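Reading a protein record of the kind used here takes only a little practice. An example makes this concrete, so a full record is given next.
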Amino acid sequence: MRHAILGAGGVGLALGAALARAGHEVVLVMRESSRSRYGGVIDVHSRLYGDLSVGARAVERLDEPVDVLWVTVKAPALHAALDRVAPRLTPESVVPLLNGLDHPRALRARFGPRQLVGAILIEAERTAPGRVTWHSLHAGISLAATAAGTGTDARTEADPGHRTGTGSGDRTGTGSGDPTLTGSGASGGTGTGAGEGDEARDGERRLARLAELLADAGLGCTRERDPASVLWRKLVLLLPLALATTAADGPLGIVRRRSEMAALLRDAAREACAVAAADGVAVDDRKLLHTLDTLPGRTDTSLHRDVTAGVRPTELAALTEPALRRARDHRVAVPALAELTRRAAEQERRAELPAPHRSIYPKGETS
């Protein structure tokens, strides 16, 4: 299959290398400032794969047909990145792996039912154009279709820990009010007419195909029935972790050494679960806290790295605003999340200039 990676940062490079290693044709869609310094080879340093070098073409604008378009830019760069994809292109599947809750609506408006909803659990850091350090020992992707008829009204209990299985999940959920996440059509209806049934079956077919190729590439894939659970299951883990590491200006081990910050992290995780539950996705907060307690102390987040490196804009707003908005809508109290958000924003304001010894890439360059 032919794959295009829109956004050659840490996630995009790690994903592209895994697909290319499995024999798939991969093209990276890069900005000219990065493409001019890219040598045509993705170099990976990984505790999971070891050192790996695989060839992959790079283009500044995607105007050739591909089977799958993976969208791996960060939320603030989404609209600018989509301008680098020719409007006439119709990939069989469009898979965004962005953080947050709001991006599926924009992508569905552009690509229709070809857009799936995805989330990836991985810690990967781009160190130069085409070079990536893959920190995590596990990498797993969750996928769900947004086609009409794929949502249900049952709640889901999601495991926020790392998942590397390849089986089909049976989770369902009411999701948010966004029809893109609940699986309803653009009109907001929830019927299951013939056209909607065909769309749902097509979505399941594409999910099965992607799950198989990801497994062959060494990436676990969990198929979900509800898009909202895909996004929330990652967000309940990432949001408190990203805010705490940014506010503490250090990895998880630094957070744990500061009793007040460690307490805020745990309280924020519980609050995130409460908001998710109010939004129709039940998450076991005990499992989430266990995951946070057992992550290595070196665990860091891209938000903290971007803030430190002087990359602007960061994805702070994309992570926090949808969750805080839903908390207000559902009248869920989130004092710890609000306090960590305030501290992270304050740290972002203080760190306008990158620290040379901790920079990842030149200021403002994200792909």
Observations:
- The mean pLDDT is 86.
